[in-house]
Amino acid sequence: MTTPEPGRHVPAIRLSGVVKRFGPLTAVDGLDLEVPQGIVLGLLGPNGAGKSTTMKMLTAQAIADEGTIRILDHEIPAESKWARARMGVVPQHDNLDEELTVEQNLRMFSFLYRVPRRQRREAIERTLRLAQLSDRADTPVDDLSGGMRRRLLIVRALLHRPELVLMDEPTVGLDPQVRQDLWGVISALRDEGVTVLMSTHYIEEAERLSDEVALMAKGRVVERGTPVDLVAKYAGTTVEEYTPQGSGGIAELERLVHEQGFDTRRTGTSLSVLRAEELPDSLRDRLGEPERRAANLEDVFVTLTGEAVV
Amino acid sequence: MSLTQQRADARPERHTRPGRFEADAVLGVVAREWILYGQSWRATTFAAIVEPTLYLLCFGFGMGALIGTLAGFSYIDFLGTGIVAVSVMFQSMMPAVINTFIKRRFLHTYEGILAAPVDVRELVTGEALWLALRSGVYGCVPLLVAMGFGLRPGPGMLLVPFVAFLAGFAFALFGIWISAVITSVRSMDYVFSGLFTPLFLVAGTFFPITELPAWVQTAAMANPLFHAVELIRGCVFGGLGPGTALLHVAVLAGFSFLMWNLAAFQMRRRVVD
Predict the structure, then answer these.
(1) Does any CB of chain A come closer than 8 Å to the CB of residue B4?
(2) ipTM of the complex
(3) Which residue of B has its CA nearest to A5?
(4) What Å distances lie between residue A138 and A134, A147, A155, A192, CA to CA?
């Protein structure tokens, strides 16, 4: 057993060949993932991709059947308690104690995270400020709005100044305005140099907050990179959306585009053609009048995890 | 203080090893319960006082008028000491079964606690320790009530909180184990009717077990509540030899040890996939 020294050369998280099965279901299937220190990595994937199981394995609340996991150079699950002392976890489920006040909820976790007695008051005040809840310290959690509760849930994991924060779908179920408020909290973490692994299925969230994105599907990472690089690699710069008339029109357009080697995705009644800046004019003339927009991470996501890559 | 220094202070490897059972983690769980208790102490105290008072009033005066003395004691004295043990069992085992199940299954409380540097053994110990502490205090309330009904105070009574604590710890662990075994709220009916009732009826609480059939008397020896009742009566009235007292303590301690292992094992199965 080695006692790791803090240092940026050690990856915050390293998973190698991790497999997790639940009976006949393989939730995580040979997952390799390395998260360097100091970045925000968005773990993006559809429901059932294995994101939450991965998160649970990182806190030793699920044990991998195969493979190795190291967090801040601590072996998981054997040295999980050490790792958990240096990281914060924002759960998917709101498990705040509703009868208690905001301050009492934080105080409870200051004990669990072993914040030294002399630092406890400062830690609570700091996290209250970060969550913009200083004036709500004595409010029962039951009286908070959904956004305030979620902010409290996030900063509760920051009481002990963790080096790594795991967030499992931190904004799931919240309306867009509240979600954007929370992005401010997560951005502040990044500015402090905290490593963040955030699972989400909100593409805009991953695109806005993540230095890098790992796309998960069927229990493994299918692609990884910066949002800009991924978009450039799989969707180019421009997407053209064609809305054909009549039934069967989309299938015909798809056939024409695929024949020329371009990827497409269906969006409702229209067909999105990726990397449209490279479309030859001869083909464009046959497709009709498009609506043009900038390519985005959603195009990559759907291409790699949802629709077939042709 | 620098950010690096604050983080370094918070790193527990400065003073412990992974896998080691840590008192700090247990105290963290207890501290959490203490804060929660700040919200619920009125209701808890009300129940702890009213229930034994009603038992003593109804059974003590009602049955006591018919029975007079029992096993050499006035019935209200006999009952008062028995109810201390029952109260300990209810104060520890009931919340251990119900609250622990709700916290695990519906409130996701343990997901939060286990994401902190706390392991399942420490979680189970902390929960049981808190309930034992509470039982150690509230378990003595029936004794005070019984004094109001004429029980003569004695120095041996000062040992009752310690017996109540030990019994409370054992029953809390028993309850936590049950809560981790059952799979639904409906299963609690089996627990309350099939386990609680025989436990507190066949323990010498309301009447001496010597009046029961021989096989039931034998079965009562395996009932930890019986040993708690005997110890408490021994403390209050005296007359319990050191060997017998040690035997009762050993049974409760052994039961605690067994239940601690079972509770930690079963809870781990529930909260770790």
Answers:
(1) yes
(2) 0.81
(3) B8
(4) 9, 17, 16, 27
Beta bridge partners of A43: A199, A214
Largest CA distance in chain A: 73
Measured CA to CA, the distance from residue B131 to residue A53 in angstroms comes to 33
Kindly determine whether residue A91 and residue B115, on different chains, have CB atoms separated by under 8 Å.
Answer: yes
Residues A96 and A90 sit within 8 Å (Cβ to Cβ): no
Angstroms from A160 CA to nearest CA on chain B: 6
Question: Tokens 């996939």 label which residue?
Answer: B273
- Mean pLDDT, consecutive 10-residue segments, chain A of 310 residues? 54 95 93 93 88 93 95 91 92 89 93 90 93 92 90 92 92 79 83 90 85 91 91 87 76 83 83 85 80 86 63
Assess contact for A121 and A111: CB atoms under 8 A. no
pLDDT per residue over B170-216, tens digit each?
999 999 999 999 988 888 888 888 888 888 888 888 888 888 888 98
Work out the angle at residue B102's Cα, subtended by the Cα atoms of residues B99 and B106, and round it to the nearest 5 degrees: 160
Helix/strand number for chain A, H first, E second: 11, 14
In this complex, do A95 and B7 lie within 8 Å of one another by their Cβ atoms? no
Crossing angle of the two packed helices B120-138 and B160-181, in degrees rounded to 10: 140
Interface residue B24 vs chain A (CB under 8 A): yes
Q: How far apart are CA A145 and CA A125, in angstroms?
A: 20
In this structure, is the dihedral angle defined by the CA atoms of residues A61, A63, A69 and A70, taken in order, positive or negative? positive
Across the interface, whether the CB atoms of A104 and B8 are under 8 A apart is answered no
Interface contact flag, B272 A89, Cβ < 8 Å: no
Start-end of H helices in A192-226: 203-209
Find the helix packing angle between B224-237 and B242-271, rounded to 10°. Answer: 140
Q: Where are the alpha helices (DSSP H) in A192-239?
A: 203-209, 227-235
In 3D space, the residue among B104, B171, B183, B88 whose CA is nearest the CA of residue B136 turns out to be B88
Measured in degrees and rounded to the nearest 5, phi and psi for residue A28 equal -125, 130
Contacts of B119 in chain A (CB under 8 A): 80-81
CB B217 within 8 A of CB B210: yes
Model confidence, pTM: 0.84
Q: What is the Cα–Cα distance from A165 to A86, expressed in whole angstroms? A: 9
